[in-house]
Write a structure and sequence with these properties.
Helix content: 10-25%
Number of helices: 2
Keywords: Membrane, Transmembrane, Transmembrane helix
Order of helices and strands: HH
Region (Disordered): 1-22
Transmembrane segments: 106-125
Pfam family, one: NDUF_B8
Protein name: NADH dehydrogenase [ubiquinone] 1 beta subcomplex subunit 8, mitochondrial
Shape: rod-shaped
Length: 152
């Protein structure tokens, strides 16, 4: 009995073809991925191995219409629809790349740096003040301390 681990193998059908160099290769790649030739733009041939895979816009799952009759509603995609190369990072349970910030980014940096500055300032201010529980000197037998023992 043998079994194959999904992390050990890959499907050759998922491998993109070589980077299109001619217009005929470009048209064939656009038809392969079901895109009009006007919308088809491959990733640049920079050695990352994307080949003829189309460079799709980054649209998160949260930005897609939840009431549209998707073929696969869990992933909000239709049958034979090409997936983005970073699809595993843009699903609904991951980072939302389409989200609009409520405030400008400089405001968030100002909040972060202000909070960290206050924490560091309190740390350095209180560095000289050592805090520990108050203790009295140890009391040993046969030594008179401030207790109710009588002196000999």
């Amino acid at each position: 009995m043998s079994r194959k681990l999904p992390s050990g193998d890959w499907n050759k059908d998922y491998k993109p073809g070589p980077f299109p160099k001619t217009d005929a290769e470009r048209i064939a790649a656009a038809e392969k991925y079901g895109l009009p030739i006007e919308e088809y733009e491959p990733y640049p041939d920079d050695g990352q191995g994307c080949g003829d895979y189309p460079k799709l816009p980054m649209i998160s799952g949260e930005a897609k219409d939840p009431f549209y009759p998707w073929d696969n509603p869990e992933l909000k995609r239709n049958f034979n629809e090409p997936m983005h190369a970073e699809f595993d990072l843009m699903r609904e349970d991951r980072y939302d790349v389409s989200a609009k910030l409520r405030r400008p980014m400089w405001f968030y940096w100002l909040q972060y740096l202000g909070t960290m500055s206050v924490c560091i300032g309190i740390y350095y201010l209180c560095e000289n003040v050592k805090m520990f529980p108050a203790v009295t000197p140890r009391q040993y037998p046969n030594k008179t301390h401030y207790t109710f023992e009588l002196k000999d």
